[in-house]
Amino acid sequence: MSRKNIIAANWKMNMTPTETAAFLDPFLTTFSDAVDCDIVIAPSFVSLAKASEEITPNPAVSLSAQNMSHEASGAFTGETSAAMLLDLGCEYVILGHSERRSLYNECDSVINKKVHATLAAGMKPILCIGESLEEREGGKLESVLTSQLEGSLADVSADQMANVVIAYEPVWAIGTGVTATSGQAQETQKFVRSVLEKLFGADVAGATRIQYGGSVKPGNAGELIAQPDIDGFLVGGAALDPTSFAEIVKAGIAG
Ligand code: PEP
Question: Does the CB atom of residue 174 touch ligand 1 within 6 A?
Fold first, then answer.
């Protein structure tokens, strides 16, 4: 089954609105026409409006938020709703990133509510899952990933899965400079697809895009994207530089 690659930049708590414009000006010139790869930029909340202004006329590049409240509106100081993100032109929302799970105690049941709120609003979740080094070395890789998928995707229908992207991000590879080998990433992503098959059937599993994330750089993107179960990347550090992110996107277009 052919799946369109999707390469997303997770800028985390970096890039002011001014820096966002300085990044996107040259970057959008490089990718001004539609390409056979989805390109996604996920700035911080305060830079979404500036990024939206810059991106809107561009057919190749979409906007994502890095998080979202599952509540629709009301007394939730500091939170951001689906309606607010839609109004800014967001198409995607990154949910369940390991930093949200570990630093802000987000658990699968809360992430599941966010997944449902994102889908109900007509946006697409990029659902992050991944194991710690301790879990991998302790033989818990498969049980951790299975329970993250079952919990975060509870009551999501097979039809809704057409709008869900999974990002497999081994926690030990995020921001560490240590990348999973292409063999490790492929083997694990194949396992993730097998869990999706059990949950949603073979057609959904074959159609779902599964990104790899964890110290992706221009130098390793080509080998990773050549793996049959890797359908793109979620990129942190290397996405802060327009030239290096453009190189990774080019690997996604070629792959
Ligand atoms: C991430 O934040 O999702 C990520 C993969 O970061 P990095 O590319 O810096 O490892």
Answer: yes
Interval 102-140: pLDDT, tens: 999 999 999 999 999 999 999 999 999 999 999 999 999
Q: Show me where the domains of the chain are located.
A: 6-254
The verdict on the CB of residue 94 being under 6 Å from ligand 1 is: no
Among protein residues, the one with the nearest Cα to ligand 1's atom 8 is: 236
CATH of domain 6-254: 3.20.20.70
CA of residue 227 to ligand 1 center, whole Å: 19
Does any ligand 1 atom lie closer than 6 A to the CB of residue 213? yes
- Alpha helices by DSSP H, the chain: 17-30, 45-55, 82-87, 98-103, 108-120, 133-137, 141-152, 182-200, 202-207, 218-225, 242-254
Q: How far is CA 118 from its chain centroid?
A: 14
Q: What is the pLDDT of residues 176-185, one digit of tens each?
A: 888 889 999 9
Residues with catalytic roles? 97, 169
The half-sphere exposure of 219 on its side-chain side, counting CA atoms within 13 A, is 5
DSSP string computed for 7-45: EEEE-TT---HHHHHHHHHHHHHHT-S--SSEEEEE--H
Q: Is the CB of 10 under 6 A from ligand 1?
A: yes
pTM of the model: 0.97
CA separation for the pair 126, 246 (Å, rounded): 20
